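Q: what does this look like with flavin-adenine dinucleotide bound?
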Amino acid sequence: MELTVLSFEDHGLVRIIRLGVISTLPRHFPGHYALLQFGDHPARPYSIANSPNDTYLEFHIKNGGHAGGSTVATTSLGIGDKVIFHGFGGHYTSIPDCVRPLILVAGGTGLAPMLSIAAASFESNLSRSVFLFYGGRHLADLYYDTRLKEMMVMHNHFSYIPCLSDEWVDDIAHGVVGDIALQHPDLMKARVYVAGPVDMVRRTVTQALAKGVLPDVIHSDLADLADLVDLVDLGNLIAITKK
Ligand SMILES: Cc1cc2nc3c(=O)[nH]c(=O)nc-3n(C[C@H](O)[C@H](O)[C@H](O)COP(=O)(O)OP(=O)(O)OC[C@H]3O[C@@H](n4cnc5c(N)ncnc54)[C@H](O)[C@@H]3O)c2cc1C
């Protein structure tokens, strides 16, 4: 199916793109990614940043500096251009009737699915607490900082906690985002979602399991969560967190 570029805005290396369709948009669940093909490049997964609606899908695509579809998407793509959509996928979605507070842990464009999960939570349960920990190395990596602060004003039960690992900035937590998020006092009663670079996701999920968070309430796109659970059970935690 062909999608059309409706709009885009650049935030540093990240381009926020809205894609629409003339007929009805297929329905996704918050947390899903879409397989998108830019030009002749192979299709790649990109997380959907917005709640399901009838008019557009929003994506946050980073120009990684390589000659792939993401570079096309963040440089030469224009309004009205066509993008081929190959379907939705993903290992996790929001759970509307769950009463647990949410701890969302994101790095890089891993922010996109967390925005979708947060929006779904605002729609399904206004009093559910949502804590979004967003990490980067440097201040410039926090490309959505202003919008996230606006979201805190709009939603009483939403907290945004920016974290920087390689730079000290006043009023921003210093350290690795997952390590900071997992110190939250509500951790054991929360549902935890993690998205971002694979190493960051693996480290955060492994440490959450080691702290005793149940696998059923940890969500990520790691395909091998069951293997991690076994390794943590066997006491091999140090070996895998060093990977
Ligand atoms: C579940 C999931 C969700 C994702 N969501 C998003 C998202 O929301 N936003 C987003 O921007 N990306 C997202 N990604 C990553 C995205 O799918 C692509 O893999 C990434 O953007 C690069 O794709 P590409 O087509 O531009 O490059 P590719 O075609 O994969 O690579 C182009 C060239 O660059 C090289 N290359 C690629 N990466 C590197 C690297 N890190 N170091 C050195 N060389 C490299 C390749 O070997 C190749 O030669 C997601 C990935 C997954 C698995």
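The first strand starts at residue 2 and ends at 11. The longest helix spans residues 111-124.
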